[in-house]
Amino acid sequence: MAAFILIGICILAGFLFRRSGLLPEGSHKSINVWIIYLALPAVSFKYLPHIRWSPELIFPAVSPLIIWLAGWLWVKVYASQRRLPKPAEGGLKLTAGLANTSFVGFPLVTAWFGEHELGTAIICDQVTFILLSTAGIIVAMNSSESHTLQPKVLVQKLIRFPPLIGCIAALILPHFFNLQPLDPLFNTLAATVGPLALFSIGLQLNFQGWREEVHPIAFTLLYKLIAAPLILLLIAFFLQMKGVIAQVTVFEAAMPTLLSSGIIADQYNLHPRLASLVIGIGILLAFITTAGWFWVIQQVLT
Q: DSSP states of 230-244 as a string?
């Protein structure tokens, strides 16, 4: 119960602080720097060296790719029927195909499954970022009216992202150095992810103009919050996958849209207002839908 109260307090505090004007515009960016450059790499060092690798972990590794491909097709069909302009289609592909596996996913996985299951969530998160930095940027550049595809940009974004660097280092360094004396440091830094990420989300929530975009918002969130986790649940069920790894993987698929999708949509002018609305509304709805998914997952994959 305390975990859910913390989630509510952090998001509400961020929303109220932004509305009150006590914080300057764009304050969330400073918080995100701490999370991306320090807290998320610390999470990798806290959990990844202790993961026992097994064939079961293939499922969380490939699940973001399945979600991305199905989401791309979902939006492609919708965009052709509605005759959406290319920038709007590109923005919806970004918001449908990439889940918020860390900022929202980590706190919710901790609340529902326990902190010890974040190792599986980290695998989902790192693959999601790789997709954002490759397939996501390709979609953004191809959908933009003012940018062209630049392979050099893709490589630079990938190799400079601190959580990915932290993930690789956490997998390699323990084979050469004893990092256990640093465990208290990693634990302290990793503990800041949940509260600060949720507070940052609260600072960014904005729902102005949702009525004009209700149809594409509803269609995108139908996939992101319902169809995407259902696809993975069916795969796990038919392949007879049981246990907590499969459960956390499906649960992570039920997360709302990755916040960075909105940043890229804004950067490449892919109908950023629509992308922002999908992200904001999706985050609020996800706290209801993920509770339902947790119950379903427990019934099917236990």
A: HHHHHHHHHTT--SH
